[in-house]
Amino acid sequence: MVVAEHVDVLPLTFVVHLLAIPAIVLVLVWSIHFRGGLSFNSSNKSLLFNA
């Protein structure tokens, strides 16, 4: 049976967060600029947040 060595996950955590931040920004830019925005109440169903 092979036992895994100790792996430091802190650098991986920073890398994942550094990749997640631009991904969130790009999704917000796409949603707001190219799709016309976000809304909680709207007659346009494509603008509803989390629908």
From TrEMBL:
Q: Which residues cross the membrane?
A: 12-32
Keyword vocabulary terms for this entry: Membrane, Transmembrane, Transmembrane helix
Q: What is this protein called?
A: Cytochrome b-561
> Which species expresses this protein natively?
Vigna unguiculata
Classification lineage: Eukaryota, Viridiplantae, Streptophyta, Embryophyta, Tracheophyta
